[in-house]
Amino acid sequence: MSTESFDPRERAESPKRADPSGRAGALERAIEAIPLVDHHVHGALAADVSRREFEELITESDRPVPAWMTQFDSQIGFAILRHCAPALGLDPHPDPETYLARRTELGTEEVNRRLLAASGIGHFLVETGYRGDEILGPARMAAVTGRPADEVVRLEAVAERVAAGGTGAAGFAAAFEEALWEHSRTARGLKTIVAYRHGLDFDPGPPTPDEVTAAAGRWLRTAERSGRTRVDDPVLLRHLIWKGVERGLPLQFHIGYGDPDLDLRRSDPLLMRGFIELAERRAVPLLLLHCYPFHRNAGFLAHVYPNVYFDVGLGVNYTGARSVAVVAESLEPAPFAKILFSSDAWGPAELHHLGALLWRRAMTRVLSGFVADGEWSESQAVRVATMIGAENARRVYGLGEDA
Fold it and tell me: Where is the composition biased (Basic and acidic residues) (predicted)?
């Protein structure tokens, strides 16, 4: 680990636009000071990785990177070289070889410390259901950052653990319910990846007990033959979701952009309207995650349904220099009390850092434009940025105030 001194308050610099009034500068400082609540994130890497592994972790593709190209030649790659390099002690815009050499020199532990501190994230809600042995869990994220980190429990992961532990079809529903309540005892929220496993065009109502038992029998027999417990039966997925609603914690849905395991055509949140309306009477917050390129549709749903919230997390990182447009579009129809911040970072701490930095940069540019045009006051801009960056998540997840 490097012994060079590093101020945790340091941020990688962002390009400034001319602003003779000084308003954008004051607004930027206010947005920079928000201790963001990342309401959907995964842990940072727990071990060093090779260049090939690193490049595979900065794309949503699950295919090997072709030998004739590099993932650094992308919006996210350029954003890493521009905004993460200064936090690692380099000038902006190094070549990938120089950047990765510096990363190796420092080591993953120091890279995590620097980039997570520079993000200015004040509270992490960590989803733990995917390749958890390769990344830091909530306790280790809290230890590295000195900031609170709570868990978000993935419904499908709980069901698959129940199946792997041995249960019959008739006993599955009860076993899942017991396991869900136990695993979520200290969690702040739940998450489903039904968009990946089936699509958002699922039957909106809860299945009957007989339907659940029959579906569990089919699933368990298939799992026994294949040795894989992946749950993708639409009846079981609906059962997991409705049990999540019964649990009463905020329930997150992956929406839109993701890896090729997902059919993007079936991940438009408008497909969920029937479910949203049935769930509305339960008053459980439904959080639509990331949403790109359907973020305007998510904004409509947040506008018309009191139980729906959304963010543009994953899309911000992967649109890089164009993320200002994505953030601007997220501010169109939805009430500002219904929009949250997330990074959806998994693995390289660059993704955690960029999720925060690019969001702050985009909010500064968009809101300063509103102020300069006389549409908003500066105090309104600061209040909305603080709501979206932290206060809305604190209200929805019952976080209270951190020290």
Answer: 1-20
Residues (pLDDT < 70) of the chain are 1-24, 402-403
| Alpha helical stretches, state H, 227-294 | 234-247, 273-279
Residue by residue, DSSP assigns 64-131 as PPPTT--TTSSHHHHHIIIIITGGGT--SS--HHHHHHHHHHH-HHHHHHHHHHHHTEEEEEEE--SS
Write the burial class of residue 93 (CB in 10 Å: 0-12 exposed, 13-18 middle, 19+ buried).
exposed
Looking at residue 153, the DSSP 8-state letter turns out to be: E
- C-alpha distances (whole Å) from 230 to each of 201, 238, 248 are 19, 15, 25
Q: State which fold the 23-47+108-397 domain adopts.
A: TIM Barrel (3.20.20)
Q: Phi-psi bin for 286: left (phi > 0), alpha (psi -120 to 50), beta?
A: beta
Please give the pLDDT value at position 24. 65
User: d(Cα 151, Cα 253) in Å, to the nearest integer?
Assistant: 15
Residue 251 β-bridge partners: 190, 286
- pLDDT of amino acid 131: 83
**Residue 130: its pLDDT value, please?**
83
In angstroms, rounded to a whole number, what is the distance separating the alpha carbons of residues 402 and 382? Answer: 20
Polymer length in residues for the chain: 403
For residue 34, give the amino acid letter. Answer: I
Give the other-Cβ count within 10 Å of 14's Cβ: 16
Q: What are the boundaries of each domain within the chain?
A: 23-47+108-397
C-alpha 367/C-alpha 60 separation (Å) is 30
Alpha-carbon distance of 295 to 314, in angstroms, equals 11
Is the model's pTM score more than 0.70?
A: yes
* Cβ-proximal residues to 17 (8 Å cutoff; 6+ apart), any chain: 24, 365
Separation between Cα atoms, residue 305 and residue 302, nearest integer Å? 6
Contact status, residue 175 vs residue 242, Cβ threshold 8 Å? no
Query: What digits encode the pLDDT tens for the residues 96-111?
Result: 999 999 999 999 999 9
Do 39 and 313 form a contact (C-beta atoms < 8 A)? no
Q: CA–CA separation, 277 vs 294, rounded Å?
A: 19
Contacts of 288 (CB under 8 A, 6+ apart): 253, 255, 269, 298, 301, 302, 308, 309, 310, 311
